[in-house]
Design goal:
Length: 444
């Protein structure tokens, strides 16, 4: 046995061994994270695995070790496959509705940079913000925010919540045997009601803490599933999107606001060896999407503040639900006129038809020129478009009056006599959704 080759291998062998050793950690986290809490910790460092394996691949290509480089490229696929979906945004329709800016910040208990936090809030202007790890000192320092945020929830449980929107109701649920507080606040926003969730469980540094974290996230997911409306979830979860602990949040159909925007790390960004994205903003609801996501600069805490612009809109057009909605038509019949109202949300059209029939509603007859006959009942008579064969003389003079001797006997005769009304290719400019052109074909 050549001990020199074992302890002092050649560069290509050394890089290959290091790459194989580093590739074991994402495999252990993927396969054993659900069985043992310690193995789940390996799932958090996908960026580190990707960076180190990419470094080994570059070195091997530089020294022209083609065979070893192919092996490292294969090992690179696992962390790349887990990170890549974070850079592809979910498919959502565009909207011009006003977004709701949501922010979350773990201030850190020992952080003394209160003024920097207040300055960041004034500059970013979030509509609602959730502070975690607050103390009595931090609660006093955040009091100036009450002038801009008239609605707040400040409990002596390590968090503070400030909102510009009215809080219709709220509750605090204690999760797991560690009794981590879960804030559930219902906000009345201009875009509609939304349920706001805020949570900060302790990190899984032991078996007991890991079980408490798993229970807390499971309770959070169950509370989210109980909500029938729109939901926004923020906080320092101490679990990345790749952790097995986050599976209940995925089953609750919560979407990450950083997906496709800026899925960078939020904890310990000064140390690239351990930095991970554990501060998250999630949302769920019909027609909801994230317009922007930002990670703020360092404010003295080991966490970075995060903000997201969440937008949603109401479903005004029924065909957006992939259902055919026929316009509703109402008619009001009088002696001289018939008024129709064509209603299709959010627009309505109304028009009035003048009774112009003789005895046969299918063949209106023009009054001869110079005739002394007058329209009965003093009604104003107008000529409808000529949809039937009439004399050439009547077609040349479409404004000639037509006499009516009696109103239609019933609604069926009226609708038959009016023939058909067609409103086609009407361009509707909808400020809420980027619709192109739609057609209304209404046959009476």
């Amino acid at each position: 046995m050549n001990w020199r080759n074992i302890f002092l291998p050649k560069p290509r062998q050394l890089m290959l061994r290091l790459a194989c050793f580093a590739a074991l950690f994402p495999v252990i986290g993927l396969l054993g994270g659900g069985a043992f809490w310690f193995f789940d910790l390996f799932n958090h460092f996908q960026f580190q695995y990707l960076g180190f394996l990419s470094f080994c691949l570059v070195i091997l290509l530089a020294i022209r070790a083609t065979r070893e480089a192919k092996i490292v490229a294969l090992l690179l696929l696992l962390p790349l496959a887990r990170i890549a979906p974070s850079y592809f945004p979910p498919t959502t329709a565009a909207s011009s509705a006003t977004p709701i800016r949501v922010a979350s910040y773990n201030v850190l208990v020992f952080n003394e940079r209160h003024e920097d936090a207040l300055r960041w809030v004034r500059e970013s202007q979030p509509d609602c913000i959730y502070f975690s790890e607050t103390t009595t000192k931090w609660a006093r320092a955040l009091q100036p925010l009450s002038r801009s945020y008239p609605y707040s929830i400040e409990e002596k449980t390590g968090f503070a919540f400030y909102s510009k929107f009215p809080i219709t109701r709220h509750e605090i649920v204690n999760c797991s045997h560690r009794e981590y507080p879960l804030l559930i606040a219902h906000l009345d926003t201009p875009n509609g009601d939304v349920a706001f969730f805020g949570m900060h469980p302790l990190p899984p540094l032991s078996r007991s803490y890991a079980r408490a974290l798993e229970e807390s996230l499971a309770i959070l997911a169950s509370k989210v599933e109980e909500q029938s409306g729109r939901v926004i979830v923020v906080g320092d979860f101490n679990a990345t999107r790749w952790s097995k602990m986050s599976r209940p949040l995925e089953r609750a159909q919560l979407l990450d606001a950083s997906r496709g925007k800026s899925p960078g790390a939020t904890w310990m960004r000064s140390n690239p060896l351990v930095t991970i994205p554990i501060d998250r903003i999630l949302y769920r609801g019909k027609n909801m999407s994230c317009r922007s996501f930002h990670i703020a600069p360092d404010l003295g805490s080991d966490h970075r503040p995060i903000t997201a612009d969440i937008v949603w809109w109401e479903e005004y057009f029924p065909f957006a639900q992939k259902k055919i909605c026929h316009p509703k038509i109402s008619a009001k019949i009088s002696t001289h006129t018939t008024s129709f109202i064509l209603y299709h949300p959010p627009l309505s059209f109304s028009f009035t038809l003048i009774h112009v029939w003789k005895n046969d509603p299918w063949h209106p007859r023009p009054v001869p020129r110079g005739s002394a006959q007058q329209p009965p009942h003093g009604g104003v008579l107008r000529t409808l478009p000529n949809h039937h064969r009439q004399s050439q003389r009547h077609q040349k003079r479409p404004e000639r009056l037509v006499q009516r001797t009696h109103p239609p006997r019933n609604t069926v005769d009226l609708l038959k006599g009016v023939t058909r009304v067609s409103l086609e290719t009407m361009k509707i400019v909808n400020s809420l959704r980027g619709l192109n052109e739609m057609k209304y074909n209404v046959n009476l």
